[in-house]
Design a protein that fits this description.
There is one protein chain. It is built from three helices and nine strands, in the order ββββαββββαβα. By secondary structure, the chain is α+β, with helices and mostly antiparallel strands. The strands form two sheets. The chain has a seven-stranded antiparallel sheet with strand order 1-3-4-6-7-8-5, covered by helices on one side. Strands 2-9 form a two-stranded antiparallel sheet. It is globular and about 45 Å long.
């Protein structure tokens, strides 16, 4: 299991944001995953995590799954979200995301949240569009790699066929 780098300013994974979630994402066997326990600051209905918050978490996780599999930056284009069971505040859950396939510039991914009994509470399938061009040094400087494994660093910094960083 490999800990993933965090984007400094990200509300969802940024480790230096007191107002954010500070999720710790890991990568193993083609899945991005994390433990999830959202407090009442992000409540929608009483003691239920707001659906927009759940979507945001899963969207970020799918971005990482796409990047780690394809080395492409995916921009969210279309989503289909199902809320199957309430995700309660201050309760332990586990979230997972995976890359599904790529068709030209269209990238497909899915993500879901499970309760302690491994029952799916929320799930999303999404279409992303591959961003044109390669990220530059400014893009890479937005990430904190201090806890990332060497294998993950290699994925983020691997060269493409023409010698530039491939994403």
């Amino acid at each position: 299991m490999s800990l993933l780098p965090v984007e400094y300013k990200s509300f969802f994974v940024g480790s230096n944001r007191e107002d954010g979630l500070g999720l710790r994402l890991v990568y193993e066997d083609g899945l991005v995953s994390c433990d999830l326990d959202v407090d009442k600051r992000f409540e929608g209905y009483e003691n239920v995590v707001h659906g927009g918050m759940l979507f945001g978490i899963l969207d970020v996780m799918m971005w990482y799954a796409i990047f780690l599999t394809t080395r492409k930056v995916g921009l969210t284009r279309k989503t289909d979200m199902d809320f199957l069971k309430p995700v309660l505040c201050d309760t332990a859950y586990h979230a997972r995301a995976r890359f599904l396939r790529m068709e030209e510039k269209d990238i497909y991914a899915s993500a879901w949240i499970e309760d302690k009994n491994h029952e799916i509470c929320a799930e999303v399938t999404a279409l992303f569009r591959a961003k044109k061009g390669l990220p530059d040094e400014e893009f890479m400087s937005r990430f904190d790699f201090s806890d990332a494994s060497p294998q993950v660093k290699e994925i983020f910094f691997s060269p493409s066929d023409n010698g530039s960083v491939k994403f």
